[in-house]
Amino acid sequence: MRELASRGLLALAAVAIGFAAADTYVVVLALPDMMTAAGLTVADLQRAAPIISGFLLGYVAVLPLIGRVSDLRGRVPVLIGCLVVFAIGSVITAAGDDLTSIVLGRFIQGIGGGGLIPPTLALIADTWPAERRGLPLGIVGAVQELGSVVGPLWGAAILAFGTWHDIFWVNAAVGLVIAAALLRHRPPRADRGWDVPGLVLALLTGGCLLLVMLEPESLTTGVTSGLAFLPVVGESRWLTPVALVAYGLGAAFVVRQATAARPLLAWREWGQVARQTDLWGAAALTVALGAVILTFASAEPERAVLADDAVVLLPVAAIALALFVWRGRHAAHPLIPRGSLSSAPAWGSIAVSFFIGSALIAALVDIPFFARLTIAPDDQLAAALVLLRFLVALPVGAVAGGWLLRRVPAGPLTAAALTLSGACFLVMASWDAKSLETFGATVVLAACGLGFGLAIAPVNAALLEHTAAEVHGLASALLVVARMVGMLIGISALTSLGLRAFRSAVADIPPIEEPCNGATTACRAYNGAMRDAGIAQLQAVFTGAAVAAFIAAALALLLLRRRATFSS
């Protein structure tokens, strides 16, 4: 019965992860309309980048803290909390009418969505013994990777019947439904009960804030009701009578939670968690990760590997990281408990994850680019379908990797899987303008995705097997952070490497004197040479990705083979 309940809990957590992962990609189709709502045009695409980077920042920067809290407070409460945060971010995004509010909503969404992964992986380690974790880890990995396939389709389905706002309203509703379903799996608590006055205050506060964000026309245009939406001072909607009432209700809710015998928020337990967590160290690591993310996520690879603000961001990251290390040595309860990641398979898994991210991003970004350059110059959908050959194989490989883990050790399995992906990248590095038209290209793309998928479960399993149960949430968070940072640094470094190859190829192309419209023989030759230069750029990127995959394979073979020193 207990195992059945655990499977039900894992199923809910996996659905939540899949849904949050889909939201990472759903913005791809909605971005043009979101830019219009924020007052931006196509020419302002660079200014719209925070809509994406804001989500990424929330997804990664706070993850170690969430993972540690799940170790101290429990997996289910953190899962529920993250789903509520995800829903709140979705509501703010859906109601956003300017760039600031949309980015804020996406940032909060990222915190909630990313925070689902560490407690879910740790939940598997808590429930299944080491020799049986492979398949559930593979299934969760497969569901997460399916987000890249389902996300754009999900967004397209909603946009066919509604607006971009509806995507995020649906997100909020689904997140709250899953959170409600998880309530029955909460651990028992002596003071649990329904604080009805607190619940009423919370609902009234949320309702008023929702009115402020939505500004329904039926109320704002009313002779009497409209007065509630006129700012008391200035022009901000957050200074209207409705907003002020929301602030008052929110303050009353806080007072009620501080004095109630059975508060909704169980603040006493959360206060104990705060005392057992190095919040200063967590803040320093968050700043360091945030600065690194902005350094690479805001870069324009055609000009430089780093963003223009790197001269400020990188010193900030270095100082914050130094402070985090200092806190780790001196704090009574450091964010990363001393010695918790000292074994080679533990920190080796994190290193392998970094290089996997560095290689994987080349496939996600540059395979569609190659298709647009060669067989689908004017068809974005056709280019996306080429990438689909890679993406579909990822979740298949994730499940297969989890199953194989019962028979093959994590190190050799990961090394073989990433060697396969690296070899496929080398084949891609030899592709020409006609290669994607062959069946062999489909085989190579599927094999490359399969290799990355096969590596998901063994890397997670190696980390969980070689860390104590008390830090499984934190360790899982660091694994995700390593992969995401690897993707950011990888795309910047590989794109810059490719652009060097492109510029070198362009330098060898004789200039054309007449205006080129493609009609003359000289123009066709010139355009063909420029296309070949673009292919040379992508060949260099694929070669770099192969090197990253081979490094990850070597590290896995060398480091992920020691027997566990901790019991689960």
From TrEMBL:
It is found in: Cell inner membrane. Residues 9-564 form the Major facilitator superfamily (MFS) profile domain. It holds the Pfam family MFS_1. GO terms for cellular component: plasma membrane. InterPro entries: MFS (IPR011701), MFS_dom (IPR020846), MFS_trans_sf (IPR036259). Keywords: Membrane, Transmembrane, Transmembrane helix, Transport. It is a multi-pass membrane protein. The keyword Transmembrane applies. The chain crosses the membrane at residues 48-66, 78-95, 107-125, 137-161, 167-184, 196-214, 238-258, 279-299, 305-326, 347-370, 382-405, 412-431, 443-464, 471-494, 540-560. GO terms for molecular function: transmembrane transporter activity. The keyword Transport applies. This is MFS transporter. It comes from Aeromicrobium phoceense.
